[in-house]
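Hi P.,

Sorry for the delay on this. The queue was packed all week, but I finally got your sequence through. Input first:
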Amino acid sequence: MRATRAGLLGSALGTALFAVAIAGSASAQETIKIGALSNLEGPFAVPGVDGHRGVELAVKQHNGMAGGKKIEIIKYSSDATPDKAVAATRKAVEQDKVNIMIGPLSGDEGIAVKNYSKTHPEMVFVNGSSGAQATTLQDPSANFYRFNTEGAQWMVGLGDVALARATRRCS
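Then the structure:
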């Protein structure tokens, strides 16, 4: 699980870095500030630390640059609750003025951050690893992107396999 969460957050950052390089985001700035939201408190704290390591690795793989700009990662913590995720995201966007926000981990957090993203259409929000369908399928936000699968996709085909095995056992 650790490597998966680190990989997902790092992959999200890699995608965000690519988007910055293509679009030239923050063109007037010398540094692009990217907020990375992960669970550093509560039951998912250990994978959250690994998630931030994934972000650091992605920055290192791009030599700390994107689109000719220096990348600055600002880490934010959540505890797998929507309120804490939105509070951290609000701080990142409104106080720290990040250019891109990456995260969160859990489904409820993802839905809450997606809803918050609608209040800042000028921002780019990249879903870290939240697997809830409602982050992008229902009432989507034009500036909230998902590059990972969602919960229902993880189970596709499982019913067919279970039925086939059950049928063989009963035959």
